[in-house]
Amino acid sequence: MKKEEIKELSIQELKAQIEAAEKAYRELKVTHAISPIDNPAKITKDRRDIARLKTVLRQKELAEASAK
């Protein structure tokens, strides 16, 4: 996902995306441990995408808290 797409998501959508991305990441790591995947750089990309999602989620949570 691109940064612009991530910033447009709501908090609930971000949480769902994070959960799905973490599940896919864990499965990919297990698959890679059993037999190497074609593109091991995908593991790094997925990990960074999860971090990006979590960062935007935290920013939105802080913005919501400060607005109250």
Give an overview in words.
With 68 residues, the protein is mainly alpha-helical. It has three helices and no strands.
Secondary-structure map with pairings?
Elements: H1 3-8, H2 11-34, H3 41-67
Helix pairs in contact: 2-3
Q: What is the tally of helical segments?
A: 3
In the predicted model, the low-confidence regions spanning at least 5 consecutive residues are none
Sheet with the most strands, sense and barrel status: none
End-to-end C-alpha gap: 30 Å
Mean pLDDT metric: 94
Oligomer: single chain
Class from secondary-structure proportions = mainly alpha
- In terms of DSSP E residues, the strand content is under 5%
Short overview:
This protein has 68 residues and is mostly helical. It has 3 helices and no strands. The model has no long low-confidence stretch (mean pLDDT 94).
Relevant terms:
68 residues; mainly alpha; elongated
